Amino acid sequence: MIATGAQYNKPPISNLQQLEGRGIYYGATYMESQLCEEQDLIVVGGGNSAGQAAVYLSQTARKVHMLVRSGNLSDSMSRYLIQRIEENPGIELHLKTEIVGLEGDDQLERVTWKDKATGETSIHDIRHLFIMAGASPRTEWLKGCLALDDRGFILTGRDLNGAAAAPAWKLTRPPQMLETSLPGIFAVGDARSGSVKRVASAVGEGAMAVHLVHRALAEL
Ligand SMILES: Cc1cc2nc3c(=O)[nH]c(=O)nc-3n(C[C@H](O)[C@H](O)[C@H](O)COP(=O)(O)OP(=O)(O)OC[C@H]3O[C@@H](n4cnc5c(N)ncnc54)[C@H](O)[C@@H]3O)c2cc1C
């Protein structure tokens, strides 16, 4: 069972780690949306996960500031999401903008960002920062052994449909849920393509995979 996780991309800010769990988030679920209800917040990132988070959080937040390093979203985000963001009065899009400072002790209190087009920096009393800058799976060692998606996450179960992804599959039965392109090898958690990237789902997949491993062993 492979559970090697992923490496989250983070902006290079010296005290970021110190404030993690104190206003810095790497996922946007119902729980986080309740923590920042009717408050201003920041979403960092220009990909689909950042776009989905911004749209979702805008339903409960007072204002969502979306900070994107590049000068446009079209290279990294689906067209339908860009449109939703542009039409949403609750989301303010800041292109070519980067966070350069965080302040706070027990809780994030202030964020400084820099507009790279003008060089201007500004300080904002914002207590919630969502970093949605993507993640890279720890699967380098699996290249050439298992079917991976285009970002290197491990393909499992029905996602292996399409023989090109599963050249090593020799059995007549299809792969089980969580089973990789090698029969009897399973992948769970953040390293798996399409996983939810939450602790509870990683643990749940691990528990499910134990049961599936027993089934695979029974075939021997
Ligand atoms: C800063 C931060 C905050 C987060 N906050 C939350 C949160 O509040 N709530 C939530 O639900 N989720 C949160 N997440 C996401 C959550 O941590 C992950 O979804 C979860 O840990 C995934 O579990 P995993 O077992 O797949 O991977 P991991 O927890 O990353 O574990 C992978 C393990 O495999 C080891 N490993 C890697 N490569 C190898 C190898 N080749 N050989 C042997 N061992 C190896 C690693 O050292 C590591 O110990 C957060 C993530 C980050 C980065």
Question: How is this structure best summarized?
Answer:
Strands 2-9-3-4-5 form a 5-stranded parallel β-sheet, covered by helices on one side. It is an alpha/beta fold.
List keywords for this structure.
220 residues, binds flavin-adenine dinucleotide, FAD/NAD(P)-binding domain, three-stranded antiparallel β-sheet, 22% helix
3D structure, described in words:
- The protein is an alpha/beta fold and 220 residues long.
- The protein has two domains: 7-131, 3-Layer(bba) Sandwich (FAD/NAD(P)-binding domain), CATH 3.50.50; 139-218, FAD/NAD(P)-binding domain.
- It contains five helices and ten strands.
- The longest helix is centred in the C-terminal third of the chain and has 20 residues, at 199-218.
- The structure holds flavin-adenine dinucleotide.
- Residues 3-5, 8, 20, 26-27, 138, 141, 189-191, 197-200, 202 line the site of flavin-adenine dinucleotide.
Query: Helix amount, in percent?
Result: 10-25%
Secondary-structure class: alpha/beta
Average pLDDT taken over every residue: 93
- Cα gyration radius (Å): 20 Å
Gap from first CA to last CA: 17 Å
CATH level 1 class label of the largest domain: Alpha Beta
Q: Please give the CATH architecture of the largest domain.
A: 3-Layer(bba) Sandwich
Order of helices and strands: EHEHEHEHEEEEEEH
* Widest β-sheet, arrangement of strands: 2-9-3-4-5
CATH superfamily assignment of the largest domain? FAD/NAD(P)-binding domain
Query: What ligands are attached or bound here?
Result: flavin-adenine dinucleotide
Low-confidence stretches: none
What profile does the largest beta sheet have?
A: 5 strands, parallel
Number of strands: 10
